[in-house]
Amino acid sequence: MQELFTTYLPELLAGLWMTARLTAVSFIGSLVLGTIAAAFRISPIVPLRAVGRLYVELFVNIPLISLLVVVTFGLPDIGITFDLFTCAALSMALLGGAFTCEAIRTGVNAVSVGQIEAARSIGLDFFGVLRHVLFPQAYRSVVQPLVNVFIGILLSSSLAGVIGVKDLTLQVSEINNQAALGLTAYMVAAFAYVIISLLAGGFGAWLEKRWRVQR
Amino acid sequence: MSSQEHVFDAVGPRGRRVIRLVTAASIIVIAAVVVLIVQRFGAAGQLAGDRWAEFTQWPYIQFLLAGLGNTAIAAAISAVIAIPTALLMAIGRTSRRAWIRWPATIYIEFFRSVPLLLVVYIFVSGLPTYGINPDIFWKLVIPISLCSSGVMAEIFRAGILALPAGQVEAALSIGLRHSQATRFIVLPQAVRIVVPSMVAQLVVLLKDTTLGYAVSYPELMKTANNLTAYTNHLIQTYLVIAAVYVVTNVLISHLARYLERRISRRTVRTGRASRAGVPAGIG
User: Fold this and answer.
1) Which residue windows are transmembrane per the record (chain A) (predicted)?
2) What is the CATH number that goes with domain B54-266?
3) Are B35 and B47 in contact (CB under 8 A)?
4) Mean per-residue pLDDT, B192-212
5) Hey, where are the domains in chain A?
6) Chain A, nearest residue to B214 by Cα
7) CB within 8 A of B272, min separation 6: which ones?
8) Lowest mean pLDDT among A33-42, A85-94, B38-47, B103-112
9) Which of A162, A204, B172, B174 has the most crowded Cβ, counting Cβ within 10 A?
């Protein structure tokens, strides 16, 4: 334990910082993609609905590792190259966006039909209904599912290590390979993940209570 | 679902015209994007027939099928270990006795919030220090079982909590003990409620086995990796493999949705355990 914190503290902190950055960027990307996909899926434009549906079906079901490998090692074959961090964040945002879209759609379905009819009858167009009536309520009612997406992204960010992004999991694995600390390094990392997950869950519960829609 | 139609239903002539115009425009944009992608592949010479031909030749297919078989075995064994463990932990967490409830809660919360890869690394390079050094198969399957049993336990618990309290009260009032009420009244119903969600969770299990890629267990993903080392047809192989995963998972999800429809038709429920079809867990 002593050795871990005296010798390897910089590596540990660098790993934690990488995990935090990767999770944050991917989660924001997921929210953006998920919102666009949800708008597509409830729009009156049939081809866009099909695109939204295809996107969700594809990325809900693809394993992250295979997407990571395609993006990182496959895309250069057709002349598209990103740096490793972008590859990881892009893959995770694509996956997270599909789950976010499904969460938002659950929230949209929870808004009663009368509200939408009322919104339309006062002259709001499709985007007006989405922006002022549907999405504000949808987001508020799916805080908890969105927190689950966040935690899912946090945990899956460890897979970025497979393509060489030095996140917390890869860092502790490398520390352990150098110093053979047994379980110590891994337990410290596990503790960090548990703390972040619990904090996210707590924050979600607080936000949900604060934002609860009165119906 | 009902609200969806009402976002745009009963549009007038102007609305219909706008929808027609945007539909046409979106078709053009989508077609343009598809053409662009195909062109990109073509320009890089990735569409050449010989780069795809191997996926029609039996030796290559056989090689990949062996990987798929290992994937199926790993996923199946993980499910066989994880589901009973999860049920046990869910019963533990809903127990009235604190000394059962707390360990079960800690187990569930820990394995739900720790990355699977970290647990795999613990088995690959942490535990061998202490003389625990099982086969690579178990170094993959045990972590998958641990992590998914945490998630599945919460699904079971949701099923248990979805039952109205009156059921247990009624059971106790006719003289059953708590353990009997759990066994004969709560579990049969709770398990039935969560069957669709459990099936949907198999998708996550199947995806989890791709971590074999990181620890060199020869499941489908690692097999594909080995194949590309030989053929050098990276993008083709990984796209084919990704398609195999997507198709398999879509089929499992459809089975889950079918089961959900069937079960919700036959039983009267007060609560919903969780939505089948969309598995929890990104991985």
Assistant:
1) 20-42, 54-74, 80-99, 146-165, 185-207
2) 1.10.3720.10
3) no
4) 91
5) 2-211
6) A162
7) B162
8) B38-47
9) A162
Task: Give the separation between CA A179 and CA A163, rounded to whole angstroms.
Answer: 23
Asked whether the predicted pLDDT for residue B262 surpasses 90, the reply is: no
Residues in B 191-220 with any Cβ partner in A closer than 8 A:
203, 206-207, 210-211, 213-214
Structure tokens at A123: 């002259």
Residues of B in contact with A186 (CB under 8 A): 118, 121-122, 126
Q: What mean pLDDT value characterizes chain B?
A: 86
CB contact under 8 A, B3 and A113: yes
Average the pLDDT over B152-171 and give the result.
Answer: 91
Domain A2-211, CATH: 1.10.3720.10
Angle subtended at Cα B271 by Cα B268 and Cα B276, rounded to the nearest 5 degrees: 95
Flag whether pLDDT at B280 surpasses 60. Answer: no
What crossing angle do the helices spanning B220-231 and B58-93 adopt, rounded to 10°? 150
Band (pLDDT 50/70/90 cuts) for residue B88 is: very high
**Cα-flanking dihedrals φ and ψ of residue A82, to 5°?**
-115, 165
d(C-alpha A199, C-alpha A190), whole Å = 14
**Domain range summary for chain B, segments of one domain joined by +:** 1-47, 54-266
Confidence (pTM): 0.89
Global ipTM: 0.91
Could you read off the pLDDT of B34-64 as tens digits, one per residue? 999 998 888 888 887 778 878 888 888 888 8
Spell out where chain A has E strands.
Answer: none
Partner B contacted by A33 (CB < 8 A) = no
Would you state the torsion angle of the CA atoms of residues A105, A109, A110, A114, taken in this order, to the nearest 10 degrees? 140
Q: At how many degrees (to 10) do helices B13-43 and A46-61 cross?
A: 50
Please give the backbone phi and psi of residue A79, each rounded to the nearest 5 degrees, phi first: 80, 20
In whole angstroms, give the CA distance from residue A65 to residue A72.
10
**Residue of A16, A23, A45, A49 best to disrupt the B interface, most CBs of B under 10 A:** A45
Cα separation values, B7 from A36, A84, B10, B18, B23, Å: 16, 41, 10, 15, 17
In this prediction, residue B270 carries a pLDDT of 42
DSSP-derived 3-state class of residue B266: helix
